[in-house]
Amino acid sequence: MSNNLPIGILDSGVGGLTVFKQTEKLLPNENIIYIGDTKRMPYGNKSKEDIIKYANAMIAFLEKHHVKAVLLACNTISSHIKSLNANVPLFSIVKAGSEYALKKCEEENDNLIGLIATKATVESGSYNKEIHKVNENIKIISNDSTRLPKVIDSQIENKPLLNELIKECIQPIVDQNKDVSKLILGCSHFPIIESEINEIYKNLTLLDPAEQMVRNVKKYLEDYDFLNETKESYKSLYTTADILEFVSYIKRLKINIDKLEKIKLFEDD
Predict the structure, then answer these.
(1) 168 dihedral zone (left: phi>0; alpha: psi -120 to 50; beta)
(2) Which of the residues are catalytic?
């Protein structure tokens, strides 16, 4: 395997750009190819069969571009990682988020944590399973949102609606246990509105799994001597919907790309 092959990142929409940003920051020499299936997002209310079908199509797209690893930036997709087909290593954001949460609980000697995610991620119990593999004493209070990821994608400037859905998503967790001080952002879209969440819930420490995920990838590349040592790198972004939907998020997150293109994931797109 050539060291200068790109890293692939996939997501149901724009949310995975938070992983893109961390990859760009921690692995600046790496080439990156990103695909967001904005045409079909959000995945959180899709059937398991459809989620797997769409995810496998994106993996196949990335493998045609000869990626050396694929980062599953979508929590919903990561929840079904065992059902996916790939010829390169897959990295799960659920696994990374669970590792991050376990570290914070250990540091603070605290066995209580909140989780907000999509309906599919919460119902899969994927975070609970990963965390309880290591520490079964940790209590996880979860709540899902089917509307918030979509609003982040398409109406992020609608502050009243955004704030309403943030409260709808988080308040039930706080009401259930006022001692919750840490909250896993279990959907890749949620770190995009981290500042908006903190405006309302100032006492919550928000845990973004993206940084831990990229650390895991970096360690893998170091261990197998796959790091790209060249100084010139390219960053390509593909979407299944209007490219204009990505422009504002590229500016908001201050990421650099060389190519932005609309593609068909399926023949009938």
Answers:
(1) alpha
(2) 74, 187
Tokens of 162: 């955004």
Cβ–Cβ < 8 Å for 31, 233:
yes
- Among 262, 260, 264, which residue's Cα sits nearest to residue 250? 260
User: Cα separation of 256 and 31, whole Å?
Assistant: 12
Instruction: Give the sign of the dihedral formed by CA 43, CA 95, CA 198, CA 196.
Output: negative
- Confidence (pLDDT) at 88: 97
Average pLDDT over residues 60-75: 97
Token code pair at residue 244: 């204009």
Contact 15, 152 (CB under 8 A): yes
Give the pLDDT band of residue 96 (cuts 50, 70, 90): very high
Among the residues of the chain, which ranges form H helices?
17-26, 48-64, 75-78, 93-108, 119-124, 126-134, 148-154, 159-176, 194-200, 210-223, 244-253
Answering whether pTM is above 0.85, one says yes
Q: What are phi and psi of 27, to 5 degrees?
A: -130, 65
Asked whether the beta carbons of 114 and 127 are under 8 A apart, the reply is: no
Place of tokens 């990295």: 91
Select from 142, 195, 193, 147 the least CA-distant residue to 170: 142
Would you state the pLDDT for residue 269?
84
DSSP H/E element including 68? none
**DSSP class of residue 28?**
T
The Cα–Cα gap between 141 and 79 comes to 17
216: number of Cβ within 10 Å:
18
